[in-house]
């Protein structure tokens, strides 16, 4: 049996550590779930298209993708999308109507996790 080594990406390791720390300090289960999802191998991490984000969110809501956002579809609502990674086209499409931010920015902006919906 092979030993699990975890992520080798230093940015991802730091993000997982920060999210776990926040979950224990603030006692918010949302951040525990996000840390769990980010710890998964790359091939199992969530990838979400813009049309799915548009379908499952409401106006002025925060969508959190613990993985990568891809550019298929269009965004018709003014929302904030936080993710670990964005494709270049997806970031451009989201920025035209809403706002595309990193998970670190979301943690600083909303540490309690109010009004956040995990998509994927």
What CATH first level would be assigned?
Alpha Beta
Major sheet details: 5 strands, parallel
The CATH topology label is Ribosomal Protein L15, Chain: K, domain 2
CATH architecture: Ribosomal Protein L15, Chain: K, domain 2
Helix content: 40-55%
Query: What average pLDDT do the residues reach?
Result: 92
Terminal Cα span: 30 Å
Number of DSSP strand runs = 5
Structural class: alpha/beta
Order of helices and strands: HHEHEEHEHE
Backbone CA Rg: 14 Å
Described by the principal axes of the CA atoms, the overall outline is globular
Amount of beta strand:
15-25%
In the residues, how many domains can be counted?
1
Number of helices: 5
What ranges have pLDDT less than 50 throughout 5 or more consecutive residues?
Answer: none
What does this structure look like?
This protein is an alpha/beta fold and about 120 residues long. The chain has one domain (about 10-120): Ribosomal Protein L15, Chain: K, domain 2, CATH 3.100.10.10. The chain contains 5 helices and 5 strands; from the N terminus they run ααβαββαβαβ. The chain has helices at about 10-25, 30-40, 50-55, 90-95, 105-110, and strands at about 45-50, 60-70, 80-85, 100, 115-120. Strands 1, 2, 3, 4 and 5 form a 5-stranded parallel beta sheet that branches. Strand 3, helix 4 and strand 4 form a beta-alpha-beta unit. Helix 1 packs antiparallel against helix 2 (about 30-40). The protein starts with 9 loop residues before the first helix and ends with a strand. The model has no long low-confidence stretch (mean pLDDT about 90).
């Amino acid at each position: 049996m092979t030993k699990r080594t975890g992520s080798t990406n230093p940015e991802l390791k730091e993000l997982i550590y920060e999210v776990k720390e926040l979950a224990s300090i603030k006692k918010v289960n949302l951040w525990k779930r996000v840390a769990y999802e980010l710890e998964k191998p790359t091939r199992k991490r969530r990838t979400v298209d813009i049309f799915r984000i548009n379908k499952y969110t409401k106006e002025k809501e925060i969508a959190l993708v613990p993985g990568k956002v891809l550019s298929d579809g269009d965004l018709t609502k003014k929302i904030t999308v936080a993710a670990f990674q964005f494709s270049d086209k997806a970031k451009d499409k989201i920025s035209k109507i809403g706002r595309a931010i990193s998970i670190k920015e979301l943690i600083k902006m909303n540490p309690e996790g109010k009004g956040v919906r995990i998509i994927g």
